[in-house]
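name: query_chain
kind: protein
chains: 1
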Amino acid sequence: MALVAASSSSSAQSLPKKYDVFISFRGEDTRCNFTSHLHDGFRNKRIITYIDYQLPKGDEILPALWQAIEDSYVSVVVFSKNYASSRWCLNELAHIIHCKRDQGHIVIPVFYKVDPSHVRNQTGPYKQAFEKFERDPRVNQPDIQRWKQALTEAANLAGHHDSHTIRDDSKLIQEVVKTYCKN
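structure:
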């Protein structure tokens, strides 16, 4: 099986990568359920995935995650209810979008129990998360704007949504994996 990559004129696409797929997710929302099964679904198709529990002990987290993103052809971003409440997730997403723009990195959004419009427009739980960031003196305005822009850009990409056509986690996982595999 091989990962289906969208055509790109970027020379970065022609360089060999260490991973086929980088999975971005909010751990407390999906680590032990949807994301772990998604990771297994990719592995069962021999798609080499990077997931954050592969971080070597002692490594600095953010540089290691950014390197893993750059070493991947595709990022699958699992947007869940609390994704936007994590500065880690938002910084990771901003780097994923940066790689999309500069290196032709492919980004596949998965809207897991969250409406894509909440992600795109930062409404609902995403609005609540940003209201907290705006009150937090440790968070600066340029970061907030960068995160909002990354969320909007990612949510405007074609992806997978569980509430309209697929309601079962296993079927959603099959669709995500099937979309990016050749027989």
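note: The first helix runs from residue 27 to 30.
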